[in-house]
Structures are given as structure tokens and as C-alpha cells.
Amino acid sequence: MTDWLYPYPTLYTGILLKRYKRFLADVEMVSGEVVTAHCPNTGPMTGVCTPGSPVQLSLSSNPKRKLPYTLELIQVNDNDQPTWVGVNTALPNKVVKSALEQHLFPELGNYSQIKGEVVYGENRNSRVDFFLYPPEDKTSHSALENREIYLEVKNTTWCNGKLALFPDTETTRGQKHLRELMALLPRSRAVMFYFINRGDCTEFAPGDSTDPVYGKLLREAIALGLEVLPCRFQVSPIGIRYLGLAPLKL
Hints:
The chain has helices at 91-101, 172-184, 212-224; strands spanning 6-7, 11-20, 24-29, 34-38, 54-59, 69-76, 83-86, 113-120, 126-133, 149-156, 158-160, 163-166, 189-196, 203-206, 227-235, 239-245. By secondary structure, the protein is mainly beta. The chain has a seven-stranded mixed sheet with strand order 1-16-15-13-10-9-8. The chain has a six-stranded antiparallel sheet with strand order 4-3-2-5-6-7, with no helix packed on it. Helix 2 packs parallel to helix 3.
């Protein structure tokens, strides 16, 4: 039995030449062929998108895809050791869903069902990544565990040494999510889940230098009862494995 939460399909090795137009990356394969891969990451990928870095690509079997290759991993050397960083932002939610189904996060307590992409917010124009229903037998659990859980996932790849940081750029969308989660408290539980998509970071903090408003809102939300789970993941061309929580530095 494996403890990989997500086993990668066969990946193909290359060297990153450049990333451009947000969704495109030119990669030189081992054969010398240069391919243009889809980059499924809309952010700046601060510190992890350096030309000349080793990368891993997946290959789609869909003949209708214009770009059959997808950029999955980039190797960095931020902490004096080669480390793979996951850059496919479509994967964290899949991994988290698998982990939630296995009840891998004791901090969340008990819940009976998991539902994704649930509409919420004052104007009902936002979707939370996961909604966790409270236990069906509420008499045997604490008042905290008897509340429903709204859980938002944020992919985290930027770091300063071994300190993981989010966000790596100003994010009005992220600020909006914090305000909407704050509005749920204390009637419901609200959880911000930071998916640290690299195994070399051992602590987590808000990226105040890039978005001080986000950092301020996060601290305000925590004071109101927002729960924060900075979760560490080891990433390799084989798969993704959960390493546990990183201490939160505020």
C-alpha cells in the first residue's frame, strides 16, 4: 500500500526555456526537441520559474488538445538542496479531496460528507472549495465539531528560506475570500488551507511584502476564529505525499 495521495502519471524531463503569456512555457526535452507546454498556473510563480531549471511534463492522450504537454513540476535550489515544486494549480484540490476522504487532518474533527464548489457569500457569487457536513450523530461530539466547515485551499509555492509564504503577489480575490470566510464566523467553522507544494519549507507566514492587506485580513480573521492549516507536501516525479502541518508565524 502506498502513502502517495496523488501518484503522477509518466512524466517527461526537460529544461525550462521561458514562460510567457501566463499559460505557455517553452521546454527543451532530453531529445533536444523544444515543445510548448500548457502552464496551468495564472500567478507569477515568484522564485520558481527560472529559465534553465529542470522541469517535468505530463503528456495528454487527448488528440484534440492543442498543447499535449502540461507543466507539472519545476526544480529549485532555494535551501541548498534540489527540491521539486508543484506548479499545476489544478492538482491541490484533487489531493485535498483525497486526503479529506481519508480523514487525514485530525484538526478538522469529524464530518459526515464532503461537497466541493459550494456557493456562499453575501451575494452568493463565490464558491468555497470544500463544504464539510457535521457528524450525523451530533450528541457524541463537541459544539465545535457540530458545526459545518467551509474550507478554502490556496496553492503555496513561494518561500524565503524554509518559510513558505502566501500570496506571492497582490490578490484581491484572496482578500475577498478572507472577508467572506470571516462573515461565516462564529456560526460556522471557516478554514484556510495552505497547500505548501514543496517539501523544503517547514514554516508558514503571510506574504506581507507582496500583499500587506491580505496579511492584515488574515490576522483579523484568525482573531475572529478562522482556522489555518498550513499543510506541507513532498512533491516528486513519483507523486505527492502529506508531511504534516507547518507552524504558523504571524
